[in-house]
Amino acid sequence: MRLVLLGPPGAGKGTQAGGLARRYEVPHISTGDMFREHGQLGTPLGLKIARFMQSGQLVPDDLVLEMVEERLTREDARRGFVCDGFPRTLPQAESFARRLASHGLALDGVVLLEVPFQALIRRLCLRRVCPRCGALYHLEDRPPRQAGLCDADGSVLLHREDDHEEIIRERLEVYQQQTAPLVAFYEKATLLFRVDSARPVENIRADLYEILDPLYERSGDTR
Ligand code: ADP
Prior knowledge:
By secondary structure, the chain is α/β, with parallel strands linked by helices. It is built from nine helices and seven strands, in the order E-H-E-H-H-H-E-H-E-H-E-E-H-H-E-H. The chain is about 50% helix and about 15% strand. Strand 5 and strand 6 (about 135-140) form a beta hairpin. The longest helix is centred in the last third of the chain and has 18 residues, at about 200-220. Bound molecules: adenosine-5'-diphosphate. Adenosine-5'-diphosphate binds near residues 64 and 85.
């Protein structure tokens, strides 16, 4: 199963990707999470990308592609993946398609999670994340059971540095300019499915399963 979740920051890609990855038994590949891990560990890549991430700009394509290539060659990605936050530019999407084709593979589907921009700003400002397990919360819509602590492992929740209004606006601008063109790209490849993501998480999940389960059945021969 080879899936891409597409959509603006805050559309719910990270919230849905984990469940989809478990359901279809493939890894959840989040380039944002991978970059944040490099940042926390202070690796050479982590140092190179810090200024892009802090300002809400995209990391240059060559760095993204190199990191994703390494990830895709690991054993667990042989049966597929759920990509969240990648690809994010046309060159990334084109390079990704060529890379898959060179292995005789293709994407099974791309889901666009759609949310009005105004709602995204509120969602991201109120988003909190568990630094240990990556669980996502929303202070009003999906608060943790105990204020400030992760339900799953009790870690102190973080307010991401780039989840502040000024940087959120920058990220949404970057999305419009650099990532939104992927919608037409995947529509042309007849891979795109649209899901209204301005609804409760459970309804979105149900729609995703309805769309993707049949693709999973069909992808059987390339598993
Ligand atoms: P969100 O989807 O909420 O914006 P992510 O965690 O996916 O957040 O990404 C955070 C940041 O990581 C981005 O603003 C960008 O700087 C960097 N990043 C993640 N994925 C990519 C990518 N595919 N290409 C370029 N930059 C990326």
